[in-house]
Design brief:
seven-stranded mixed sheet; binds zinc ion; six-stranded parallel sheet; alpha/beta
């Protein structure tokens, strides 16, 4: 099968062997996959990963329970051991022996086939097109913001960094009725938010210490310091960023102004699929380009461009 493999460098491999099924795994044929910032960090060597990349996908069941064969599915990325205290509590994303598809000790989805544990799979409702279903994983991550802090329609919420993930976070927060502002650096981002009826502003335009909730989706070390400037006393900063480098920030402010800082990662696939099925999230505007899997290296180049949104791989 064809695959995009990272081992010190990213390569397209035309003839890698098919995955072998173990335990409760089903075999999936990948139909569409998305390149995420985590993939770009992985090829920068951030998490010491080697193997097949990719964790955002929609696929078709090839081997599994007969009633599922031929049906489209999406898959959660955290593969828990099933035994540890976190798995027992139903939190496989924090499993003490966690594997993550295409990120940590588990082959990924940038390949014709993927073997994945049955309990990670979710059926895709028939009215969700592949180009939208491929956003289930990042949309679930965006929804997780709602789990991290109480969101009220009275609040002013600022999303710092309107990239691939931030654009989904602003759309999710808008549904709450809160006053959402996207902090943007590019006209393209401002235009996108304007089309969705969401306000945007540059950093200089925003009053300091006036937001009850600030969500950092920048993925940059400066993002946290900006969030700290914007959040009001007793407010909450939600971190969706994984940081390249160590953020420099005045943590005394966190103590003195009694700021809550909450980390947030993966979220509910069921919730994400419901929003997509109801047509409540615009994913179409987020797709920059499609590339066939053979042109995976070009696809990564495109995804790396500053301001790039989602680049999809076709199989
Ligand atoms: Zn991702
Ligand atoms: Zn576990």
């Amino acid at each position: 099968m064809r695959a995009l493999v990272f081992d010190d460098k990213l390569q397209f491999v035309p003839d890698i062997s098919l995955p072998e099924l173990t335990g409760a795994q089903w075999l999936l044929k990948i139909r569409r996959a998305g390149i995420c910032n985590t993939d770009l960090e992985l090829i920068d060597g951030m998490y010491n990963f080697s193997g097949i990349l990719g964790h955002e996908f929609v696929a078709e069941v090839v081997e599994g329970a007969p009633e599922w064969v031929g049906k489209p599915v999406v898959g959660e990325i955290n593969v828990g051991c099933g035994e540890c205290d976190f798995c027992q509590k139903g939190i496989p994303s924090q499993c003490r022996d966690r594997k993550a598809v295409g990120i940590h000790t588990h082959p990924g989805a940038f390949a014709d086939y993927l073997a994945l544990t049955e309990r990670n799979l979710h059926a895709v409702p028939p009215n969700i097109a592949d180009d939208a279903a491929v956003f289930t994983e990042p949309l679930a991550a965006a929804l997780e913001v709602l789990e991290s802090t109480h969101i009220s329609p009275q609040q002013r919420i600022i999303v710092v960094g309107v990239g691939k993930l931030g654009a989904l976070v602003t759309q999710v927060l808008k549904l709450s009725g809160a006053g959402v502002i996207g902090l943007v650096r590019r006209e393209k981002q401002a235009q996108l938010l304007d089309n969705w009826g969401i306000a945007s502003a540059a950093y200089e335009e925003l009053p300091k210490q006036r937001a009850q909730v600030v969500v950092d989706c920048t993925g940059t070390a400066e993002g946290f310091a900006i969030a700290l400037d914007l959040v009001e006393a007793r407010g909450t900063i939600v971190l969706k960023s994984t940081y390249k480098g160590k953020p420099q920030a005045d943590l005394t402010q966190v103590a003195v102004r009694e700021i809550r800082v909450v980390g947030s990662r993966c979220g509910s696939f069921d919730g994400a699929l419901r929003l997509l099925a109801a047509g409540l999230i615009d994913t179409q505007s987020l797709v920059d380009a499609h590339y066939p899997i053979e042109q995976g290296l070009e696809a990564f180049q495109a995804a790396k461009q500053p301001g790039a949104m989602k680049v999809l791989l076709d199989f």
